[in-house]
Design a protein that fits this description.
39% of the residues lie in helices and 20% in strands. It is of the alpha/beta class and 495 residues long. It has two domains: 260 residues, Aldehyde Dehydrogenase, Chain A, domain 1 (3-Layer(aba) Sandwich); 184 residues, Aldehyde Dehydrogenase, Chain A, domain 2 (3-Layer(aba) Sandwich), CATH 3.40.309.10. A seven-stranded mixed beta sheet has the order 15-16-17-14-13-18-19, with helices on both faces. A six-stranded mixed beta sheet has the order 10-9-8-11-12-20, with helices on both faces. Helix 2 runs antiparallel to helix 5 and helix 3 packs antiparallel against helix 6.
């Protein structure tokens, strides 16, 4: 099908598409077949300056728009996304490599829902007024924090953009946002929607390499807040940049999440949950259930059946409706995944399923990796501790509840996690005991609006997908009112 993409994409600055100041372009390729999709502008420092200037000017008026006005803007964006759902889904699938069933059924509709959610919570948000004593009233109001710099990753470019944009716009902030250079097209296509709805300068889109245009954003003094989703390594650089200017940062970073299966789990649900935890989006998910902990009484049977299921997964061109596992988002990820397969072998682990590149059935030009299950793994191996970010899970045996909690927490990360059991008391105990920002019970990778998402330890700071984000994008202001007509009495006012 025709994607109706532009041959060349500029930068969205002040609601106008403009080329990079030096005319530099980079290419966007389909990771499933290598096809050139489009060329995109490589932003310079001057371009970032222009974008920040536009956002700064727009903030002067946007911050004064009422909650009702901002909510209506968000609803209009959601309506436009819904109206173009199939187009956005196809663009995301071709640019990113994820199966069309995921972009059509999750990425795009969930993005729309995030704008609707924040439109709703914005209308319900209230300040407060308190009588501290008979003569003193304290008001608390929330003012938008200012111009925000946002950087979104290549694994969920459209959805992560919605996660970032919706609360920022709801709060009255203006934005300069940058997608990954690997997957820029869906956000650029969204830009055409945004510029027809929002006032000029409210949202500006910068594209280019993270090491260049991304660094220009980090170095720019005009931001009042930074928001980043991506690797822990880069997140540390973002945090340093924010701390040097004494501005806040929201960081959603890496993970090595534990997906725990007890002997009393619903068997079919458990097998499905293990696959959902690591195969969704080709395992390119920060909270992926990449460490599968299985109780020793069911370990052998679980591994045998899960290996068979992994081998039966339909790997194919992502735009085909029957494809279950699509392409990695770029060649570098394929190399990384296969390198970790070799590391696992060197560490003494066993490749129970997959571990190879897929080249048959017309997939030889793409970035396809067979779903991979690694067994005979201990929790101290590199493959059990380092984020691989692909369809690769390690399986670790455990005996007791106490043992698996200790192993789950023996990690620098704490983003997601799951527990499968039919014992509700055990489910709650484990969910509370595992050191992580989110735990799923008898499911995995459910990411609805309204439930806070974010990490602890090296997995990040702050929470997204929840109304608490309105606090992250605003400053609390206290107004003290004296209701007494009398002077303070501290000074002699006789004249």
């Amino acid at each position: 099908m025709s994607l109706n993409l532009k041959e060349t994409y500029g930068l969205l600055i002040n609601n106008e598409w403009v080329p990079a100041s030096d005319g530099t372009l980079f290419e966007a390729h389909n990771p499933a077949n290598g096809e050139l999709l489009a060329k995109c502008a490589e932003a310079t420092k001057e371009d970032v300056d222009r974008a920040v200037d536009a956002a700064t000017e727009a903030f002067k008026t946007w911050k004064h728009t009422s909650k009702i006005e901002r909510a209506n803007y968000l609803l209009a964006i959601a309506d436009a996304i819904d109206a173009h759902l199939e187009h956005f889904a196809q663009v995301e699938t071709h640019d990113n490599g994820k199966p069309i069933r995921e972009t059509r059924g999750l990425d795009i509709p969930f993005a729309s829902d995030h704008f609707r959610y924040f439109a709703g919570v914005l209308r319900a948000e209230e300040g407060s007024a308190t009588m501290l004593d008979d003569n003193t009233m304290a008001l608390i109001v929330h003012d938008p924090i200012g111009v925000v710099g946002q950087v979104v990753p290549w694994n969920f470019p459209f959805l992560m953009a919605a996660w970032k944009l919706a609360p920022a716009l709801a709060s009255g902030c203006t934005v300069v946002i940058k997608p990954s250079s690997h997957t820029s097209l869906s956000l650029l296509e969204l830009g055409d929607v945004l510029k027809n709805i929002l006032p000029p300068g409210v949202v500006n889109i910068i594209t280019g390499k993270g090491s260049q245009s991304g660094q220009f954003i980090l170095d720019h003094p005009g931001f009042s807040k930074l928001a980043f989703t991506g690797s822990t390594e880069v997140g540390l650089d973002v945090y340093k940049a924010a701390s040097q200017r004494l501005i806040p940062a929201t960081l959603e970073l890496g993970g090595k999440s534990a997906n725990i299966f007890f002997e009393d789990a619903n068997w079919e649900q458990a097998l499905d949950g293990a696959m959902l935890g690591i195969l969704f989006n080709q395992g390119q998910v920060c909270c992926a259930g990449s460490r599968i902990f299985v109780q020793d009484t069911i370990y052998d049977k679980f591994v045998a059946e899960l290996s068979t299921l992994f081998n039966n997964v339909k790997v194919g061109l992502p735009w085909n409706d029957d494809t279950q596992l699509g392409s990695a988002s770029y060649e570098g990820q394929v190399r990384k995944v296969l390198e970790y397969v070799e590391i696992a072998k060197q560490e003494g682990a066993t490749i129970a399923a997959g571990g190879v590149r897929v080249t048959e059935d017309g997939l030889d030009k793409g970035c396809f990796v067979r779903p991979t299950l690694i067994t005979n793994v201990t929790n101290d191996m590199r493959v059990a501790r380092e984020e691989i970010f692909g369809p690769v899970a390690v399986v670790i045996k455990f005996h007791s509840e106490e043992e698996v909690i200790e192993m789950a927490n023996d990690s620098q990360y704490g983003l997601g996690g799951g527990v499968f059991t039919q014992n509700i008391n055990r489910a709650i105990r484990v969910a509370r005991a595992v050191e992580t920002g989110r735990m799923w019970v008898n499911t995995y990778n459910s990411i609805p609006a309204g439930a806070p998402f974010g990490g602890v330890k090296q997995s990040g700071i702050g929470r997204e997908t929840h109304k608490v984000m309105l606090e992250h994008y605003t400053q609390m202001k206290s107004i003290i009112i004296n209701l007494n007509d009398q002077p303070s009495g501290l000074y002699d006012l006789d004249r």
